[in-house]
Amino acid sequence: MRIRFYTRFGFAVALLFFCLASPVRAQTPVRLNVLYRYVADHTDRLTTIRPDDGADLRFEGQQFYVPGNATSGTMELDRLANPSKTIHIDSTSAVVGYVVQQLLGFPWTDPDSAPGLSPLDEGYNPVTGDYALMRPAEVLHGYAPAPLGVYGYQRYGNSNESVLSLSAGGVSIQSNLVAGGALWRWYWNGVQFVNHHDYGREIQSAFFFNGGASNPTEAGDGLSGPDIAPGMHQGSPVLMAENSDSTQITRAIPLEWNYGRYGGGANHPLIWGDMNLGKDITLNFDNLGPVARYTTHISLPTSIRGVLELPTPYLCGTFSRFWTYDAETNRLSDVTGKVPNGCTAPQTAHYSFAPKFGGVIASDSSGAHAMGEYGVNTSQGGSVDSFAIYRFLCDGDGTSETSYDTVKLDAVKSAVFPAGESTYTTYLMTDTVRNVATHMAQLFQAGAM
After folding, report:
1. pLDDT at 60 over 80
2. Residue 180 — very low, low, confident or very high, per pLDDT cuts 50/70/90?
3. With 70 as the cut, is the pLDDT of residue 9 above it?
4. Pairwise CA distance, residues 187 & 428, whole Å
5. Average pLDDT over residues 400-413
6. Is the backbone peptide bond immediately before 311 cis, with ω within 30 degrees of 0?
7. Which of 71, 76, 171, 290 has the fewest CB atoms in 10 Å of its CB?
8. How far apart are CA 109 and CA 111, in angstroms?
């Protein structure tokens, strides 16, 4: 397993002085259990919180996240077995002829106990006499679902992707619901731009507070990546995902990226249940073709001093030529030679740029394909304190969307973020380098904030 934490810390580590000045922590994240499903002897489905229990069985992936500890409004859920251990059933109460085999967790008893909850169903197959924990709308041949009367966060079995797609202005995007609805792919002119090696990448938002010890992340936590089976990835639950005309809207209940903190771990993700992170992305903004307005949404239970990425695009290693654009002076600058190697610990080296109006760009070597991120500085009433460019071409493992090598653009804001929901606006665009600069100039001239 190869998990490297630079993909989340990057720029925020460089700004921890801001957080340390007045650390404010919201609630402690809730430690969850992952409910996995296996099949034994082709007919006996069983639920477990310990994947090694099913080493000799067929893995059917994640079904739900539920709290790992009893709290107000939760109920104990157990896996029971008949005396011969040939039939297993999940239940919140005793079942005649069955004995408790494993404590699975403590799901909620009220669907309104937390945002984004789904009902747990127990399916029954009258032909085999078998039972199976089922997700909402799951079709399992021969099984008729019945509600258990408890609730958790739905997962996606063994699926690596469940995408919501949208196209307009020559751009097509896909957001992956398995990974919190983070923006998974961006196509323009036949080229896919986004790297999604793990859940720390994508185009997404992340929040850093409590001196950097806390890092709710839109897509999920560090237990992700191509070395880990999709059914073991720990992605953030989705609260909302829909398209409305040329706007795609997603919200996630974020997991803590550093899953080993606060008592979490593998099979025990940590969820910031009173927060949400997400986006409204409008394609073909103002009829500018491949320009999208990206509105970052964050909802907090209390005011918190921290650093927000709004958003950070992780791009494929192809885009290793870097530029800045200052809209006030209409100056496009090639800064490739100024972007440091970010592969050396502590992996925070970056190039910083803080125009009043402008942005950063990453392109291929020819400049024919480029992505830019534009914003207005907070000093001018906008959302962005500064931009950053990172170069993480560390392994030489290629330029695919799942390669370890990646480059990163970032727009960040450091502030005391208010309780409740707040929004912050930047703009993403793809075109040739020269045309990306032209699009940024058009946004400036139109007074886009």
Report:
1. yes
2. very high
3. no
4. 12
5. 97
6. yes
7. 71
8. 7
Give the span between the Cα atoms of 343 and 296, in whole angstroms.
28
Counting every residue written for the chain, the total comes to 449
pTM: 0.94
Residue 24's contacts (CB-CB under 8 Å, 6 or more residues apart) are: 209, 210, 302, 303, 304, 305, 416
| Placement of tokens 């886009």 in the chain | 448
Q: Which residue has the tokens 């380098």?
A: 433
- Measured distance CA(224)–CA(257) in Å, rounded: 10
Question: For residues 267 and 233, is the Cβ–Cβ distance under 8 A?
Answer: no
Query: Could you state, in order of their start, the residue ranges of all structural domains in the chain?
Result: 6-27+160-445, 31-157
CB 369 within 8 A of CB 191: yes
Confidence (pLDDT) at 441 = 98
- The dihedrals phi and psi of 442, each to the nearest 5 degrees, come to -65, -40
The 3-state secondary structure of 175-214, one letter per residue: EEHHHCCEEEEEEECCEECECCCCCCCCEECEEEECCCCE
Query: Residue 86: is its pLDDT beyond 70?
Result: yes
Once rounded to an integer, what is the mean pLDDT over residues 381-410? Answer: 97
Which CATH topology does 6-27+160-445 take?
Beta-galactosidase; Chain A, domain 5 (2.70.98)
80: tokens are 């029971």
Do residues 374 and 427 make contact, with C-beta atoms less than 8 angstroms apart?
Answer: yes
